[in-house]
Amino acid sequence: MSVSDPIDDFRRAGYAHTDWIAGYFSGVRRRRVLPEISPGEFAAVLPVSAPERGESFEQLLSEFESKVVPALTLWNHPRFFAWFSVSSTPPSILAEYLAAAVNVNAMLWKASPAATELEQVTLGWIREWLDLPPSFFGIIYDTASVAVLQAIGAAREYVAPECRTEGMSRDLIVYVSEQTHFSSERAAITLGFGQKNVRKIAVDEQFRMRADLLESAIREDVAAGKRPCCIVASVGSTSTSAIDPVCEIADIAERYGIWLHVDAAYGGSTGVLPEMRHVLAGVERADSLVFNPHKWLYVSIDCSILYTRRPEILRRASALGAEYIRSVEDDQVVNYNEYGVQLGRRFRALKLWYVLRYYGREGVSVMLREALRLAQVLKGLVEADARFELAAPVPFSLVCFRLRAENAANERLLAAINASGQAFLSHTILNERYVLRCAIGNFQTTEQDVRETWDLIRQQAETVLQEHALSGART
Ligand SMILES: Cc1ncc(COP(=O)(O)O)c(C=O)c1O
Q1: Same domain, yes or no, for 402 and 282?
Q2: pTM of the complete model
Q3: Largest CB tally within 10 Å, which of 1, 78, 257, 265?
Q4: Which pLDDT value is given to residue 337?
């Protein structure tokens, strides 16, 4: 630590760190997306114990650059196409910096009035952009996994309120599809539903939940004395970005009095575009809806929004207070901690506010449309090469494709692409076939990035197919 005034020290180092970030953004394409590193290799170069005496910001930044960054998977790289591509953008980064500086805890209105009210205001703005009912109450959690945990907890409160005092009932059932993100099943396990009480409904040829099979499963459960509790439908499921038939599922949920949670963690933000709003058809009938600004609304991880039309039930599922956090304003304000398991809460609304204001609806729409367009460009390239095939429809910015070859060849192809360091894609298994996934969404990704990545994929495919032919000839 420097002996100079710590605030002067901070000011100087702050400029240097900002310069580093700006340089990172402009030169990021020269870096590998995936590090070349084996498990334990990074930790092995660090001292075993923390330093006795403080060190300078210069030393820290220099080691961040020379040691930490080469060992990072660069999520904020324009050729990061794995899982769901995400973006931390300049306004979000600056807001994180400010939030850390004021270090407020958004647990109660009293604990920081602007943090609570900014959350209400920004979530109201997004509700308007997505054309959701004004009655939808919004809250920010860290992730969609926690949001679905809270949603299924609310579903239990809705269907079986006695569980709150009596403990868990063994006959409550949660319905997901074979393609629903595993966070719903994990939430059901965590809440004590039991894995055997999670029904995985089969999907159609486009990987959408079969509403007819959902209804049959519910009927069977009711006949067997079970209590259907929650259905999770997806708008943009993880493997293929499929969109479940939310309207049909909402009819079923209403018919049987079941809580409907819609997981739009990835696909939801496209509802901002009038030409894409149809993907959210029916969500106004959902009891809860999650979408992640940290996935595809240019906000740094973490930021996940849950909307519900039954805030009182969400609140009842978790609300507990203590004398030391009571305040005289309680009956006029929202105290967000009452709507979840966390008491202490980060000031996440600030980065959302920064992003919404810096880009405006126009700027956000330009970026979303570009990602959607680039996915169609890639889809066209896949379709034009007879050695490849598309593995799923492309409703958003995720392209699932594969070599027309056996699984092992596709697995080798993905490994070769990723080992090059020039791009990072991920995979899934669909109908027992190994499939490559290319998700586009980083704010710096250009058509050149997509075309050059496709060239890389084709070159690697050439090699893989040659090796494959040779090994076939040898056997
Ligand atoms: C559709 C969907 N839902 C939920 C999740 C979980 O998201 P989180 O990482 O915010 O918990 C994911 C993660 O990729 C996802 O794709």
Answers
A1: no
A2: 0.96
A3: 265
A4: 97
Q: Are 418 and 424 in contact (CB under 8 A)?
A: yes
Pocket of ligand 1 (CB under 6 A): 83-84, 143-145, 181, 183, 234, 236-238, 263, 265-266, 292, 304
Domain span including residue 205: 105-347
User: Given this model, what pLDDT does residue 472 score?
Assistant: 67
Predicted confidence at residue 264, as pLDDT, reads 98
- The Cα–Cα gap between 355 and 349 comes to 10
In a domain, 8, yes or no: no
How far lies 38's CA from each of 35, 43, 44, 116, 414, in Å? 9, 10, 11, 43, 18
Which CATH number is 35's domain given?
Answer: 3.90.1150.170
Among 141, 181, 296, which is best to mutate for testing ligand 1, by the most ligand atoms less than 8 A from CB?
A: 181
How far away, in angstroms, is 323 Cα from ligand 1 center?
A: 36
Q: Are residues 114 and 218 in the same domain?
A: yes
pLDDT value, residue 405 = 95
| Residue 311 shares a structural domain with residue 197 | yes
147 CA from centroid of ligand 1 (Å): 10
Per-residue confidence (pLDDT) for residue 468, from 0 to 100: 76
Q: In 3-state terms, the chain is what percent helix, strand and coil (to 5)?
A: 50, 15, 35
Is residue 1 a part of any domain in this protein?
Answer: no
Measured by CA distance, the residue closest to atom 16 of ligand 1 is 238
Mutating to test ligand 1, I would choose from 239, 292, 397 the residue with most ligand atoms within 8 A of its C-beta, which is 292
Angle between the 349-383 and 447-474 helix axes, to the nearest 10 degrees?
A: 50
Please list the ranges in the chain whose pLDDT falls under 50: none
Ligand 1 centre to CA of 238 (Å) is 7
Residue 197, in any domain of the structure: yes
For residues 376 and 266, membership in a common domain is answered with no
**Residue 3: predicted pLDDT:** 58
- pLDDT of 319: 80
